[in-house]
């Protein structure tokens, strides 16, 4: 599981002057504030009225991702940066507002594999028919509607002209946010797969690792460097005893590629430039997947970052015979090392 804070947009859909939507949205965010802090969720209210989106005016189909208008580009960035959504919607004539349908229709890939919860309000049906209408559209965009919903009957929620929903509706809102956080994490592999480079195994994918991937990186390192420690008769290997803070620090400084499958980190490699040299390190493959070409694929992926460099450099343990043979087969040659117990290898790059 990632340690990244979740960003959830609370979409206020009604654009009528003096509409109830902003009041419902304020009640929701205030009610969920303690739970959102516990779950590391940032709730970000977004009023569709403030977006000033005209009726869809892009020439290209949204699935192409080609946006010519500034208002579309802003909306695309806002939605792409979100991990999930809560839609606060009224019911108009047994359906959702045209503003919501229009905002959804502007985009395509930005919505995919993200959860969406609904808070509806209305009279007889408490807005539930608007939610059913919206689900037809959201599922087509590969949004994933939650089972938990909040349905507010206006006559019951207004008490002496004050908006005061019953306590059970606040509990329903908390249940919805908790479900949204779980579903967001469960859908993360699908979101990553759609945004990543295909890997060497069927269904695998690669993308850059960030500081929030520290838990997965720490586990992989400690699985992979035990054999290195045994082969070289030393526990003085940073990968075995780095703190989470140290892992996050080098994930910030190094460009690290992770190879994934269904949310599992299968392998990784990191690179950093120093002048005309590209340093390659932390090449790791999960022990149960060795011998399937993943290490070779990761090494070649790292080498592609050497454009403009004169040579590639990497280091391994002096007694790591498997590693030495692997690197030499890939064109690396040993060079004298300053530190005991290590072998430095280099590979010249053609200009």
Number of strands: 15
Percent helix, as a range, is: 25-40%
Strand content bin = 25-35%
Write out the strand line-up for the largest beta sheet, numbering strands in chain order.
Answer: 8-9-10-11-12-13-15-14
Distance between the termini: 42 Å
Shape: elongated
Low-confidence stretches: none
Element-by-element helix/strand order: EHEHHEHEHEHEEHEEHHHHEEEHEHEE
Mean pLDDT: 92
User: Count the helices. How many?
Assistant: 13
What value does the Rg take, in angstroms?
26 Å
Structural class by SSE content:
alpha/beta
Oligomer: single chain
Largest sheet: 8 strands, mixed
Characterise this structure.
With 351 residues, the chain is α/β, with parallel strands linked by helices. The chain contains 13 helices and 15 strands. Strands 8-9-10-11-12-13-15-14 form an eight-stranded mixed beta sheet, with helices on both faces. It is elongated and about 80 Å long. The two termini are 42 Å apart.
